[in-house]
Write a structure and sequence with these properties.
The complex is a heterodimer of chains A (403) and B (102). Chain A has 403 residues and is mostly beta strands. Chain A has helices spanning 4-13, 115-119, 164-171, 202-205, 258-261; strands spanning 27-29, 38-41, 54-57, 62-64, 83-84, 93-94, 100-105, 111-114, 123-131, 154-163, 179-184, 197-201, 211-216, 230-232, 245-251, 265-267, 283-285, 292-295, 302-304, 310-317, 323-329, 337-338, 340-341, 351-357, 363-373, 396-402. Helix content of chain B is 47%, strand content 2%. Chain B has helices at 2-11, 41-50, 54-57, 64-76, 87-97, and one strand at 24-25. Classes of the chains: A mainly beta (403), B mainly alpha (102). Chains A and B meet through β3, β6 and β10 of A and α1, β1 and α3 of B. β6 of chain A pairs antiparallel with β1 (24-25) of chain B, so a sheet runs across the interface.
Amino acid sequence: MLTRRLMLQRAGALGLLAAGSAKAQDLLDLGFTGGDGLRQMTKAGDFAQKSEMILLRTRAPLLETPMAVFDQGVFTRNDKFYVRWHWADIPDSIDTATFRLTVRGHAEKTLSLSLKELMALPRIEYAAVNQCSGNSRGFFAPRVPGGEWGNGAMGNALWTGVKLKDVLDRAGVKAGAVQVRFNGLDQPSTPDGPDFMKSLSVDHARDGEVMIAYAMNGEPLPLLNGFPLRLIIPGWYATYWIKMLNDIEILDKADENFWMKTAYLIPDRPFATMTPGEAGVKMVPISRMLPRSFITNIPANAKIAQNAPVTARGIAFGGDCGVQTVDFSADGGTIWHPAKLGKDEGKYGFRRWEASFTLPDRGSHNLKVRCTNTKQEVQPDQANWNGSGYMRNLIETTPVEVV
Amino acid sequence: MRMLALLALIALPALSAEGPTKPLKVDLSNPGPTFTGPGSEPVNNNCTACHSAEMILLQPALPKAAWQAEVTKMTKVYKASISEEDIPAIVDYLTKLRSPGS
């Protein structure tokens, strides 16, 4: 553990204390190598509709959810749900009376739907994990540039809305349609910068699960999470979950916009892994998530009493399917025991797990947790690497000290 | 235990979802920090036009070539209008941020 003085020194070196307002108690260490995982915590209200968050960037906002929040239950509170925007030109107000969702392109007719009209369509609701493609990027070795997240660029919410399929069917997708492209109200900060847009195949868009959500955990979405409408693609990375969704375009050819063709590409290999500097690797757009699991009640370097019964607990998710099993190891991964799983709130959401253990020997020990999903995919014990810092799903290790 | 039960209750979503029926206005005006000190002018004039300084301050220690690539990405891909003559000074400033002796 860093001492308070050392934390302040390092924060000063990082330029985090420039305004002289940050104090050691406002700092949190994400545990990256080299000590540069130090982050300032925001205060409630520093960012609209958000309470205390880990600050990565003020403009355009990048706010991370502290791991302790995930210990409070499988649903991540809206005021603690992480925030990620590419461009800073984000509308600060939405008039719900005049807002319209447009559906256009390779369709029988163009739609311009009010929120009232949209909410009159049949309602669907499910839990789903929203995880940034670059969640955990700060743990990559060697390090890569980008949003230097710890493990909190993720969250699970109960999403309520309408089927994208129902909306597309009202517009009437014409034969020959290939992809459906989604755009939100955020705009590039530069005159010719690429507007942030993402596309799905027509079949995926019409699968009956992809949702246009108007509520998150029973309430309207916070503006920074996409008020008034957000696209939900359960099981897929958050890059596709367009916020402030106001435009749907049905395309008769593949989308070649920058955010599909050039950005958010991964090595076309298991775990999206490659060697640093490796040439000629086939790259494909990122898509489905992989299983992950975390201990949420025991922080790194916690002290544990010798021979005392301890309960570890946390969250797991399967990726694009449910959780089959969660295994726990108190000896660094030699012996694994199945953890007890909590209530299933839906295959795309977080699942609680719990495991009891005792450690008879003093000294340093590593706790590990491992999720196997219902497709029998298991978290790996080797870290992946790619130049963008995407898709980390290594088995997590929590070092503890038995005293 | 009582505390835990209470937290679980708070974390449970409401049973019937409320949609966006009321207009929403929030304050997004905080520009965030800029850079100070010698050499910071071209960085403030260019980089922090689009994003606040933390994005740069929280990067890992990167070699000069990596910072050069970042600046090139900002101009070529994101179309930041950075004048050619400012680029060497910007790259130099960014490289020295995390390795002041170099």
